[in-house]
Write a structure and sequence with these properties.
With 370 residues, this protein is mostly helical. The chain has one domain. It has helices at residues 2-17, 41-50, 90-106, 114-129, 161-166, 170-185, 188-202, 204-209, 213-223, 236-252, 258-273, 288-302, 314-339; strands spanning 38-39, 138-142, 149-152, 156-160, 312-313. The chain has a 3-stranded mixed β-sheet, sandwiched between helices. It has a two-stranded parallel sheet with strand order 1-5. Strand 3 and strand 4 form a beta hairpin. The N and C termini lie far apart (102 Å). The relative contact order is 0.14.
Length: 370
């Protein structure tokens, strides 16, 4: 019986691992030295287009970096990032992310302003083109004060308005977005779901050996059709890898990677001043001082130096100001909506003391002739 159970487990693993091929990897986008550290809105698109050409500075491989490895920024897009045991094809990953995205949008209010959404999408797509991601990205803005952004499996990416308003420079925003894009490129969501699935399979022999036999296995199948969302939470090792890759992606897109460090130093200072002010989602991240130290080491050891980086743009400042007006208007509308709600007053007990002076008093009309 034990041999039969082992054979069944092996067969299940073999069937599930035979997944269809996913999307082809995007072509590597080489970048050249960006323009000045601060550009106006008319220069933004031109600068991003020019980042697709080869830079002599970037072509240099840092000493000690193995060509084609995960540390080789010149090989982005052709490094095998996201490889390893994963029971989900690209098609299944996109379907999983799409379903989760529908739930997110049911419970969230999106920013639909075309200027804001187009700008955030453009910044994000530029990072995606300079990443190892193999799925198309859909990027939207959520109306929320929380400093956060998250990307679901399959490239469904949400940026909170609070993050945009809290960033002081476009490069800081790009750093956080690059980190989330790295989670998708490394396929952390489906890999974690795979671990959960294998843990479930490990219990199949115990079920078969139990009194229920194959009937017990049928009950198990009926109870485990969906992967729990808890498997989509990222471990600290996942967060470290997302930091490692995200810094490379923002560098490849032309941004100053030191902005990633400055933003998390800002987060650390905020947490010291106001404990508990940082969203709970950061609880799974490595301690901020550790993130800062590792990021600084990565910048110094694997990223070729450049003379110029993109730090911010005038368009970022304009979009940020526009978003702040939208946020204020939405909050004002929420206050008006609350004030328009009817006020309910508790009915006075007829047998009690009706001492409310504003309550109408009813008197019986005297009959005629009395």
């Amino acid at each position: 019986m034990k041999r039969l159970c082992n054979a069944i487990l092996v067969a299940l693993l073999g069937l599930t691992l035979a997944v269809p091929a996913g999307f082809a990897a995007p072509q590597t986008s080489q970048t050249q030295q960006p323009k000045a550290t601060t550009t106006d809105s008319s220069q933004t698109s031109q600068t991003q287009d020019q980042q697709q050409t080869t830079s002599s500075d970037e072509d240099k491989t840092m000493k000690g970096v193995k060509p084609g490895s995960e540390s080789d920024v010149n090989a982005i897009g052709h490094r095998g990032v996201g490889g390893g045991l994963d029971l989900y094809s690209m098609e299944r990953e996109i379907a999983l992310g799409k379903q989760a995205a529908q739930e997110v949008e049911k419970s969230s209010r999106l920013i639909n302003d075309p200027v804001v959404t187009e700008y955030v999408n453009r910044v994000g797509q530029n990072l995606v083109r300079n990443s190892d991601a193999k799925v198309p990205f859909t990027i939207k803005v959520i109306d929320s004060d929380e400093i956060n952004a998250f990307a679901l499996p399959g490239g469904f990416f949400y940026v909170n308005s609070g993050l945009i308003l809290r960033a002081d420079e476009e490069a800081e925003l790009a750093g956080v977005m690059a980190h989330e894009i790295a989670h998708v490129a490394a396929r952390h969501g489906t890999k974690n779901a795979t671990k959960g699935q294998i843990m479930q399979w490990a219990s199949i022999p115990l079920i078969l050996l139990g009194p229920g036999g194959w009937a017990g296995y049928g009950l198990y199948e009926g109870l485990n059709l969906a992967i729990p969302l808890s498997y989509l939470k990222f471990s600290r090792d996942d967060e470290r890898e997302a930091d490692f890759l995200g810094i490379q992606y923002m560098y490849k897109a032309g941004y100053d990677p030191n902005a990633f460090v400055s933003f998390f130093e800002k987060i650390e200072a905020e947490e010291r001043r106001h404990p508990g002010s940082i969203p709970k989602v950061f609880s799974t991240h490595p301690p901020t001082p550790e993130r800062v130290r590792r990021a600084q080491e990565e910048i110094a050891t694997i990223l070729p130096a450049r003379n110029e980086y993109i730090v911010t743009t005038s368009e970022f400042d304009l979009v940020k100001a526009r978003l702040r007006r939208i946020e204020n208007r939405n909050k004002l509308n929420d206050v008006k909506t609350d004030s328009d709600k009817p006020t309910l007053r508790k009915r006075t007990d007829p047998s009690g003391d009706n001492s409310d002076p504003n309550r109408p008093v009813l008197k019986r009309r005297p009959e005629d002739g009395q």
